[in-house]
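Before drawing any conclusions, I looked closely at one protein, both as residues and as discrete backbone shape codes, quoted below without any editing:
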Amino acid sequence: MDRTQSLIDEFRAEPAESDRRRELVAGMSDILAERPDHPAAVAFLASVAADTEEYDLARVQATTALRLSPPTDDAHRQRAARALLAVMRGPDEDLVRQYAAMALGPYADDPEVHDAMAAAVLDDEDQLVRDNALAALSHAGPSDGRAEVLHRLADDRALGREAARILTAWGREPAA
């Protein structure tokens, strides 16, 4: 049995609210950092992130792993993105949604991810989800679509200044 399967088996054997579960997800993060397209690691982290019955801290750790070591294979990348979208759009605790919003940056070229990030940054009820979606947009880097979202934020009292700062950093003119 390889290390990946061993971590997955140990995770499943732990009680639901165990801090050890979060630690085991962190171990899986290390595997993904070494091999971003490890099929078992990607599938495991995506399933932990999307599982609304899972321990929130394990879910946060899984979203962080998917942000820091995004898969490069299209199928694995799409699986990770769909899991993160489900979390951010879901009825979850705000903390998990906030981390999912932040984790979407590496997946922003996917049109569905872009649309979800735009919706979150423009309209989400949780200000920290909005803040994290804006950080993810910034992390994703310049594109016409992302610049358009930032221009739409120009008059936003909470995020307008940061949107203008990002546009300037990208070499784009902020709205006057």
Remarks:
- The mean pLDDT is 91.
- The chain has ten helices and no strands.
- The first helix runs from residue 3 to 13.
